[in-house]
Design brief:
- The chain has 8 helices and 2 strands.
- By secondary structure, the protein is mainly alpha-helical.
- It has a domain of about 110 residues: Orthogonal Bundle (Recoverin, domain 1), CATH 1.10.238.10.
- Helix 2 runs antiparallel to helix 6 and helix 5 crosses helix 8.
- The two termini are about 20 Å apart.
Length: about 180
């Protein structure tokens, strides 16, 4: 069962995936998100990174609706989204199977210089793609860069993504992964 704090965080993520703001997630939202990220990162239409990101979104959509009798081809409401995440966050193993693959698929595209770290500019593009401001991106980067080295290693990014989903600590930096709650 999701805690109230997890529900708050997953609801924040729902608002990101509800790209058109109509209170449901539909396949069209994935197209809007893909276009926002393409523009934010400056990817050419049909480029390798554009294709990787779109593919990751399509896989995410299938995983979200797969095995979810309430969803099938219907728009996904917040209630259904929370149920899917309750199922997908039952254990660290279910997280590894259903949630983490999204990051596995988008990381190669957002790491634009392929150094296995997110530079501040790459993180800014990611955050702008989440429909946050540049100021929010810079503030979140400071919170997430725990060792102060000016980059986010792949390990740091994955740990913050995990903490976003599981941490009950309201001050955990990972809570800012998708923007302010």
């Amino acid at each position: 069962m999701l805690s109230d704090f997890q529900k708050q965080k997953i609801s924040r993520m729902f608002r990101f995936f509800d790209a058109d703001g109509n209170k449901v997630i539909e396949p069209e939202d994935m197209d809007i998100i893909a276009e926002e990220f393409r523009k934010s990162f400056g990817w050419q239409v049909g480029s390798e990174d554009d294709k990787k990101f779109k593919g990751a979104l399509k896989k995410y959509w299938r995983r979200l609706t797969l095995g979810n009798e309430d969803a099938q081809d219907e728009p996904i409401t917040l209630e259904v989204f929370l149920k899917a995440y309750e199922r997908n966050l039952q254990s660290p193993q279910s997280y590894e199977e259903y949630v983490k693959p999204f990051l596995d698929h988008i990381y190669p595209a957002i790491d634009t210089n392929k150094d296995d770290m997110l530079q501040p500019s790459e993180f800014n593009h990611l955050y702008l793609g989440f429909r946050n401001s540049l100021q929010e991106a810079q503030a979140a980067f400071q919170k997430l860069d725990l060792n102060g080295d000016g980059v986010l290693s792949r390990e740091e990014v994955y740990q913050h993504f995990y903490d976003f989903h599981f941490s009950q600590d309201t001050n955990a930096p990972g809570n800012f992964f998708f923007g302010s709650l």
